[in-house]
């Protein structure tokens, strides 16, 4: 997928790039993908040979003024200070930088900042004075080159190998493995160093060429989604057909809708028996087994009974006092309970205990590879549950009313369907016959 899609960008954002292993290439690629105007600058320095990264290069010295008209009509513009004695393009003065930021925000222009240096190494650990991330950025992209894995810890592989050694306890001359790199990337002296509070944290594991590197990247991504908002795995050197990012990983919240009164059934379907456990217990266990975090259970009519049934599971309860209005009110209650940083949420129904952790994980993996706004399983020619919604859909979900569910917004977004062969996942329970059919399909007659 494209880098802009994988990053989940909003309009007119300011983005700093730090780390090693492809920062400049990532900036150049992103600038080409975005709608103009796009501005590139540096808070440290830029190699003079890199000035071709943009269609236009403007040099502003301390006595110059930044004028708004410089942004008009340009696809990409590189704006730096003068060349220093070493031949490097310097950063802007603080006053000019502040004016540039304000002008970009006013004109809806993206501002991309190279905020670190690595001397062309795949990996680095920042010194005390690095990285130089302006406090006003919306996002920080930490880049790390997977080409450093399996190589010797020395100056050829790591910029400042002695600091890498200090954090990981790996000896100089020893081989770097996935565990060492994970340690660096989750360290506040390593990958997380200097990221301003409130800025979104994105990790881009570049140089994922070949199946081994992709596997290592995916392993790291799954291990690091607890400290980064998203972890991308890709290759700037050998991009795929759709773009340089092969997968974009993040935590996925689970929302279990369990507020209904089960009027047609005549008893709480959330508490019906499924292999010795209540329906809702089985659904919650599936969510936890599949790795959803957090798992939120929306209650209503049978609040006390459901909370009692799930007392030994690490789930969070949200009571929906308006449950009688319809399913939309429970969707809103679940959304309102999500962490502010939540990137996506998967909604499960409490009357579908047959949904497997495998299906949940497959939906997540599918979403990792394309980041379409909505993904649902497709059994033959019918869409089923559960459904995964990206954050970009949350505002629209909040506008659904009555007894409508998430499908009310399917026409508003691109929906991706995961082919699934087990059409028993289409079954749910509203009446006694539904319960009979569900039990028969999974356990055979007489198992109820």
Structure notes:
The strands form 5 sheets. A 9-stranded mixed sheet has the order 4-5-2-7-1-9-11-12-13, with helices on both faces. α6 links the parallel β11 and β12 (230-234). The protein has helices at 3-7, 23-33, 94-106, 161-168, 178-185, 210-224, 279-289, 303-309, 327-336, 357-370, 394-398, 432-443, and strands at residues 14-19, 38-42, 45-47, 56-59, 76-80, 88-90, 110-114, 123-124, 139-145, 158-159, 200-206, 230-234, 245-249, 253-258, 273-274, 277-278, 295-299, 316-319, 344-349, 374-379, 382-383, 387-390, 415-419. The radius of gyration is 25 Å and the shape is elongated. The model has no long low-confidence stretch (mean pLDDT 93). It contains 12 helices and 23 strands.
List the helices and strands and how they pair.
Elements: H1 3-7, E1 14-19, H2 23-33, E2 38-42, E3 45-47, E4 56-59, E5 76-80, E6 88-90, H3 94-106, E7 110-114, E8 123-124, E9 139-145, E10 158-159, H4 161-168, H5 178-185, E11 200-206, H6 210-224, E12 230-234, E13 245-249, E14 253-258, E15 273-274, E16 277-278, H7 279-289, E17 295-299, H8 303-309, E18 316-319, H9 327-336, E19 344-349, H10 357-370, E20 374-379, E21 382-383, E22 387-390, H11 394-398, E23 415-419, H12 432-443
Parallel strand pairs: 1-7, 1-9, 2-5, 2-7, 4-5, 8-10, 9-11, 11-12, 14-17, 14-19, 17-18, 20-23
Antiparallel strand pairs: 3-6, 12-13, 15-16, 19-22, 20-21, 20-22
Helix pairs in contact: 5-6
């Amino acid at each position: 997928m494209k880098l802009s899609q994988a990053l989940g960008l909003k309009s007119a954002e300011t983005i700093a790039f730090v780390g090693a292993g492809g920062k400049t290439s990532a900036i150049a690629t992103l600038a080409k993908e975005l709608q103009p105007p796009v501005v590139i600058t540096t808070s440290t320095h830029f190699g003079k040979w890199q000035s071709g990264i943009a269609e236009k290069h403007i040099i502003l010295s301390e006595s110059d003024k930044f004028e708004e008209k410089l942004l008009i009509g340009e696809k990409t513009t590189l704006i730096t200070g003068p060349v220093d004695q070493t031949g490097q393009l310097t950063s802007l003065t603080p006053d000019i930088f502040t004016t540039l930021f304000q002008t970009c925000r006013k004109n809806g222009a993206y501002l991309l900042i190279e905020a670190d240096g690595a001397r062309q190494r795949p990996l680095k650990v920042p010194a005390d004075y690095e990285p130089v991330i302006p406090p006003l950025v919306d996002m920080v992209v930490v880049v790390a080159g997977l080409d450093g894995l399996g190589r010797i810890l020395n100056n050829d592989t790591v910029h400042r190998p002695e600091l890498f050694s200090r954090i990981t306890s790996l000896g100089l001359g020893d081989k770097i493995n996935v565990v060492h790199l994970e340690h660096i990337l989750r360290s506040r002296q390593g990958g997380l160093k200097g990221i301003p509070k409130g800025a979104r944290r994105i990790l881009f594991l570049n140089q994922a060429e070949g199946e081994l590197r992709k596997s290592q990247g995916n392993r790291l991504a799954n291990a690091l989604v607890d400290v980064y908002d998203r972890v991308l795995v890709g290759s700037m050197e050998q991009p795929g057909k759709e773009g340089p990012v092969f997968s974009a990983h993040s935590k996925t919240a689970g929302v279990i809708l369990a507020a209904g009164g089960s009027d047609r059934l005549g008893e709480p379907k959330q508490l019906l028996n499924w292999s010795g456990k209540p329906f809702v217990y089985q659904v919650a266990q599936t969510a936890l087994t599949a790795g959803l975090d957090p798992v939120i259970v929306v209650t209503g009519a049978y609040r006390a009974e459901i909370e009692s049934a799930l007392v030994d599971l690490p789930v969070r309860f949200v009571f929906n006092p308006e449950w009688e209005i319809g399913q939309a009110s429970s969707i809103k209650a679940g959304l309102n309970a999500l962490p502010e940083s939540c990137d996506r949420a998967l909604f499960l129904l409490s009357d579908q205990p047959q949904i497997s952790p495998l299906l949940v994980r497959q939906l997540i993996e599918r979403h990792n590879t394309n980041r379409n706004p909505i993904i649902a399983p497709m059994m033959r020619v019918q869409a089923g549950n559960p459904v995964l919604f990206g954050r970009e859909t949350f505002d629209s979900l909040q506008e659904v009313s009555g007894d409508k569910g998430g499908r009310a917004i399917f026409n508003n977004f691109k929906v991706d369907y995961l082919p699934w062969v087990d059409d028993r996942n289409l079954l749910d329970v509203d009446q006694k016959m539904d319960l009979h059919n569900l039990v028969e399909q999974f356990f055979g007659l007489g198992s109820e």
